[in-house]
Design goal:
Blueprint: H1 10-23, E1 32-34, H2 43-56, E2 58-62, H3 72-80, E3 98-100, H4 102-107, E4 122-125, E5 139-146, E6 150-151, E7 154-157, H5 159-169, H6 171-177, E8 183-185, E9 188-190, E10 193-196, E11 199-201, E12 204-206, E13 212-214, E14 224-225, H7 229-243, E15 250-252, E16 259-262, E17 266-269, E18 272-273, E19 281-287
Parallel strand pairs: 1-2
Antiparallel strand pairs: 2-16, 3-19, 4-17, 5-16, 5-19, 6-18, 7-15, 7-17, 8-11, 8-14, 9-10, 12-13
Helix pairs in contact: 5-6, 5-7, 6-7
């Protein structure tokens, strides 16, 4: 059986690559789906979201929930898209959905040191890169309740496109970043000792259903890379690719009632400025499954 992610199967890769690049969106408008109420999708709305996620690993939605701060919006939306197993951790609320806001950091002091709960920019990453393998974050929903007075824009890049750009430069980059010890997140310590053990793992991996997964952060602190020359070259190449917008890099800002549904694609966030009237608030729901996972994006 052909496998486009097998470095030895160049024919399968060439066919998959051609199809992927031909269908990949080049404007964020190409993946926008207007919804009435994300909690109650119509058949056509659900089909459009699933179609974009199948082809581009992500979709942006608008909705008529502009003044609605209901945390059931991302939860009910996820359930309709096959997302049920929320990733709960020590910084989420009890319902496993995180309110991403500077105010949230003020209320819960343990969040203050983590960049998502500040107004600072966040570099390229995929979510949950510090999780253990059995808690891999494969699906993600971000729902905007309120945008900042200015800033807070995102760049998005399908991780399959990043894979193509890196493999086209050198298949050895993929080989290096597929090692089980390619990227290690050091242990997190608290007052009692080791709160989370060190987490080694690959950047690129293939799940049991044949889907490509990417685990990555552009952070330069609290991260350890395998020290060999091949890994260093691969990381430099990936950083260079992400440093400049590609034809498939999508840019935009989530406004109230809008959201992102994705298979944990690469994303970043610019810094932002708030006012008393415009305090940024997003709900983040992370999942252990992909959006309505059906079949790998491969040549027919």
């Amino acid at each position: 059986m052909s496998n486009p992610f097998d470095l030895a199967d160049t024919a399968a890769y060439a066919a998959w690559r051609e199809r992927k690049l031909d269908t990949a969106p080049r404007r964020i408008e190409d993946i926008v789906v207007p919804l009435n109420d994300p909690r109650r999708l119509t058949v056509d709305e659900r089909a459009a979201l699933l179609d974009h996620c199948a082809n581009a690993n992500m979709a942006i939605y608008t909705s008529n929930t502009v003044a609605d701060a209901d945390k059931e919006i991302p939860r009910q939306l996820g359930r309709q898209l096959g997302l049920n197993r929320l990733d709960s951790h020590w910084l989420t609320d009890d319902d496993a959905i995180s309110p991403i806001s500077v105010r949230g950091a003020e209320v819960r002091g343990e969040r203050r040191e983590f960049i998502p709960y500040t107004d600072k920019p966040i570099r390229w990453h995929t979510d949950g890169y510090y999780n253990t393998a059995d808690r891999t974050v494969r699906g993600l929903i971000l729902h905007c309740v309120q945008s900042a007075a200015s800033g807070g824009d995102n760049q998005l890049l399908d991780h399959e496109i990043a894979y193509i750009l890196l493999r086209d430069e050198s298949p050895e980059h993929i080989r290096a970043l597929s090692r089980d010890d390619a990227m290690t997140i050091p242990a997190r310590m608290d007052d009692t000792g080791v709160a989370r053990a060190a987490q080694p793992g690959p950047v690129f991996s293939i799940d049991g259903k044949g889907f490509l997964h990417m685990r990555y952060t552009a952070r330069t602190i609290s991260i350890e890379w395998c020290g060999d020359a091949a890994t260093a070259a691969a990381i430099d190449a990936l950083a260079r690719i992400l440093a400049k917008p590609t034809p498939w890099t999508l840019r935009g800002r989530l406004e109230p009632g809008m959201g992102l549904v994705c298979n944990n694609v690469l994303h970043d966030r610019s810094g932002f400025t708030e006012t008393a009237e415009r305090r940024r608030l997003l709900y983040r729901a992370r999942y252990h499954e992909r959006v309505a996972e059906t079949t790998v994006t491969a040549p027919a």
